[in-house]
Structures are given as structure tokens and as C-alpha cells.
Amino acid sequence: MSSPSARVTIKDVAAAAGVSKGAVSLAFNHKPGVSEATRERIFAAARRLGWSPNSSARSLSRQSADAVGLAICRPARLLGLEPFYMEFISGIESVLAERDCSLLLRLVDSLEEEVGLQQRWWREQQIAGSILVDFHDEDPRISPLQEIGLPAVAVGHPSLTGGFPSVWTDDAAAVAEAVRYLAVLGHRRIAHVGGPRGLGHSTIRTTAFEQAMSELGLEHGPHVETGFSGEDGARATRSLLLAGDRPTAILYDNDIMAVAGLGVATEMGFSVPDEVSLLAWDDSQLCRLTHPTLTAMSHDVHGFGAQVARVLFDVLEEREVTSRPVATPSLVPRASTAPPPS
Amino acid sequence: MSSPSARVTIKDVAAAAGVSKGAVSLAFNHKPGVSEATRERIFAAARRLGWSPNSSARSLSRQSADAVGLAICRPARLLGLEPFYMEFISGIESVLAERDCSLLLRLVDSLEEEVGLQQRWWREQQIAGSILVDFHDEDPRISPLQEIGLPAVAVGHPSLTGGFPSVWTDDAAAVAEAVRYLAVLGHRRIAHVGGPRGLGHSTIRTTAFEQAMSELGLEHGPHVETGFSGEDGARATRSLLLAGDRPTAILYDNDIMAVAGLGVATEMGFSVPDEVSLLAWDDSQLCRLTHPTLTAMSHDVHGFGAQVARVLFDVLEEREVTSRPVATPSLVPRASTAPPPS
């Protein structure tokens, strides 16, 4: 087994072409910022050295590593309660098992910690590649992980994921559908309980929410940022329902916040859906168990995880990789939504 | 780094002592079947060669592997739906993260497949040790994994887990409490919807169920074996409620079967708890969301996972290890249990 230090890296290619590592990255990601001539010189150097963004990965994966990495930056307790990740991981595992491959799973406290972890996993040949999730605006993982040539699939909209091949759900389209549905029922004051500021898909959903409200001529309803926990959903719902101009409908960014919100509304004596409509995201079995059952933007999270793993194998096995969305979440109307009180 | 093949194995110790590998295993596990003289000879050979059941493990874990293994023999879809495993894994991860250690996770189709996988993980130094779950009666993993000296913690009653240090819940005591509670409410015909035949903790619960019924002078209620899925729980409930001598109370071995059972009872027009009482196991948030809410045998699954990981680190870091039960699941009465119809 050749030692990791003997691998050709992006640094070698940059030196050979007389450019910065950033320029090599731009060229290989087909981004503007390097001239045609420089691009050609970079490609020639890479060919000469036998380097491609994933080449060191590929030779490695064939040799030894039969695991792929997944680091999740969420509190452990939340991970155990939110159905999304277990369904997502079960989908990944269903594909990994076919390939005799395991998942190296780790909870981290920050994206910076994840960078160090992925670099070590890769250097020590513990992984053939990684699945990167929860992209932030200007995500700090992109540049250092592309630099080491980590083969990876990104879970997130291509506007967030740098040059990594990506798989995503069209959150903007789904939010617009949810808002239009509530508007058709007659709601004018709609609130959004979203994820944390800076988390890419939260930003996309929040922007789409505001845009959909504008297009319908509705005032921007209140938007609350949360950390996705049930407690956060309860707190947000309580403050929304105590406000003077309380909303008649609330759209939540996951299912456990919607479930907790339903509990709060009931406890405060608001009838759901007669006085306030609630709409959840993700639609795990939780949404079908509550009373009333929860209307949700539903998607096949298990299938999403499986698709992500398949694209990672496309990367590892040098098949042509195209970033692609999975099916857009679709509205499943249940008993928690109705016209607003007249 | 010394090559794995240079390690002293149980085979070397057996050869040096002039006995079989099985005899070495018996001696180190303090089991009957080897004479005092033979036992002494085995221990002397092991000391001479510097071998102990975990010695090769320990030297290794200090060198390289910063992951621990977990193989789960369940269908992927089920894993995504059953809250138990995600809460259990989140507890494991909470301790692993403190130690800068990752979890190598894999779904397998059989225990035989797991043996091969654990052997390979260990041989290729991908893991420092493993967490072994879902022990079966006469579990086929024990002997081959002890033979290679895999440092591991077993999740299961010591009667099932061979010589591995183990962490378990006292399922027998919890089942007895559940049955006595239903009997105090006045139930005489109690059914048990359990796990698959051969799975150790299912056998323990089933035996405890029959024993508790006998002690209370009740006829053995019907016992149904399942694979733990919601569909299994629905099917079992349907057939129990269609029977001529239908039970007035049903005890389920997990929460998703109880949730599905509640759906079936409602659909068949049986009022819960007025006509039939339902009692769940594990008590995830699912049990608090149903209508009526589900009475359950509740335990801290996240804390259980954390405790398992801590014992594994005791093994890896050569601290004294004692097998120990975690807190016994305790009854949380909610709205799905009541006296039987008079």
C-alpha cells in the first residue's frame, strides 16, 4: 500500500502549472476566474501528473477503504428524536450494504471540526469518500475538502455546495406550494418557523416563503429562526399565538416542531384547524399519529438517502456524475389545515 | 505498525498449552469443562506469549483505530422507522464524540455475515472494538469473535452473551411488572406480541410473560411472534381481536407495533381502552402522540446507548469491567389501559 504522503495533490498540480490551488479548483469546477490559456495549462499539468479532483480517491477506494463518511453537526439528543436522519441513514445503508460498504458516522460540534475530521479520515484511509450534509451559506468545508481531493457527494442545492456533485430537494418549489395551498384556503397571515440562520436550505426556504407571500400580495408573515428541536417549535408557536396579530396558519420546517406546536396550540386552547392551521415538513410517521393528523410537505427520505449513496458510488467508480434533485416534496393534506376563522 | 498476521492469537496459546481453542476460551471465560490443571497450563502459556482475550486489541486501539463497530441485523426500512435504534445510536455517539471516536455502522442480513464483517474490520484495523447487539440463543458470533480477541461490549443479558462484558435491561422484571399491572386492573386474558423466535431478549420476555401469568393463576394468553415492524403489529392485533376468546389487553414488545395495533383496534371499532387495553415497550415520543396516548414500559434509550459506549471504553482502556444492567424499564401509565369491560 503506498503511503498517503506519496499521493499527488492539488498542490503539486498548482506548482507544476505555476498557479494557485484556488485556480486549479476553479478550472476543474468549470468556474470563471481563470483564462482559457491558464485552464489549459492546469489541465495539462494534471494530466502529466495523473491527477484529477478525485483520482487519489479512486485508486484508494479500490485498494482498501470500504467505508464512507458522514459527519452530522447536530446535538446528539436531537438526532435521536428527529426521524429525518434515521430514515436518511437507513436509505444510505440500504445501498451501502449491497456494495459491502459501511458508514463511518460521527457527530461534530462545528463545521470546522468536521473539516479536520474528514481530512483525517481521508489521510488515514478510513474512508473511500464522504457524504456532506447541512451546507451553510459560504460553507467553510468546500475549499479545504476539495483541496485534498476528497471524493464526496453533497446533499444540498448546487448554489451552496461548491464544485461537489450534489443531490437535493427543491425546497423553494415545495415552500411555494405550501404557501399557495394555505392562501387558497383563505389564509392571509401565515407564519414560518424555520431553521437556523446561515444554514443553506433554511435560507432557501425562508427566501422562497417571502417571495411566495409577496407574489400573492400577502404581507411577510412573521418568520422565526430555530434550532429544529421540539422545544424550539413549542417556544416559537407559543410566541406566535400570543402576538397581537397572531397568524391563522403556521408552516414548520420539520415534523417534530409541528408536533410540538400542535401540543402548544391545544394547551393554549386554540382549536386546530378551526382557529389555527399547522403544516409540517418531512412527514414521518409522527404526522400520521397526532390528533388531528398533520398536513405535511411529504417526501421519501429513505429514497433520498439511497439516491445520495448511489451518486457517491458514481463518483467513486468514475461514472459520469450529474447533480440532480430528487422528487420535490409534495403536499399531503390531512386534518390540521382548514380555512381560517371568518 | 506490526502486521496483523504477526499478532499472537488464541490458536498460538492453544498450541502452546496442548489444548483446543475451545478449551482456552472456556478457561478465560471461567466456564466449566476444563480441569484446574489444564486451566493453569493455559494461563501459563498465555502469560508466556503475552496474550489475553483482548491484548491484541488493546495494543492496536492505541495505535490506530479511532472507530468502533456496530452491525445491525434488521431490514433497512425498519431501522428508519423504529425510534429505538436512532436513540440508542445517538447515546453511543454522545460518548464517542467526547473521545474523538467514530461509529462504523453496517446493516447485515445474518449473524454469519456479521461474523465475517467484524473479523474483517478487526483484521484490517478499521475498529478498536465493537458493540454487539441482538443476541440470539446460542449466538453464533460469540466463539469466532472471542477467538480473534475482538474487544467488545455485548448488549444483552449475560446468559446470552458468552464471555463478553455486557450491558442489558432487566426485561424479565419489566415484563412481570407489566403483567401484574394489567392483572391488578382486572384483566384475565392478556396477549403478548413479541419478537422473533430465537432472539435472546424476546425469549427472555416470552418466558417471563408466561411465568408471570402462571404465578397470577392466569391461563397462558396467546403469544404471537413477529419481526417488530408496524405491519407485523397490525397483523397480530387483527388476528388477536378476531379470535373467539379475544384478549382484553395486549402487551407489545416495541412501540411501533403498539402504535399500529392501536390503529387496527380503532379501525375494527374496538374502543381503546374501554374494550381493549394496549401496553407498549420502549416509550419513544410516538407513545405520547397517539390518541389515546399509549401506556408504556419506559426506559432511557439514549442513556442506555451512552452506558454501552462507556463500558466499551472501559474494555479498550483496560479498566476493570463489570457487566451491569441499566435501569429497569418502568411503567408509565397513560390513556390506553383501563379495567376490562365488565
TrEMBL record, chains A, B:
Which Pfam family is one of those matched by this entry?
Peripla_BP_3
UniProt-listed PROSITE patterns: HTH_LACI_2 (PS50932)
Q: Does the keyword GTP-binding apply?
A: no
Q: Which SMART domains match?
A: HTH_LACI
Q: Which InterPro entries match?
A: HTH_LacI (IPR000843), LacI/GalR-like_sensor (IPR046335), Lambda_DNA-bd_dom_sf (IPR010982), Peripla_BP_I (IPR028082)
Q: Which GO terms describe its molecular function?
A: DNA binding
Record bears the keyword Ligase: no
Gene3D superfamilies in the record? 3.40.50.2300, lambda repressor-like DNA-binding domains (1.10.260.40)
Keywords in UniProt for this one?
Answer: DNA-binding, Transcription, Transcription regulation
Domain named HTH lacI-type is located at 8-62
- Put simply, this protein is called LacI family DNA-binding transcriptional regulator
Annotated organism of origin: Streptomyces chitinivorans
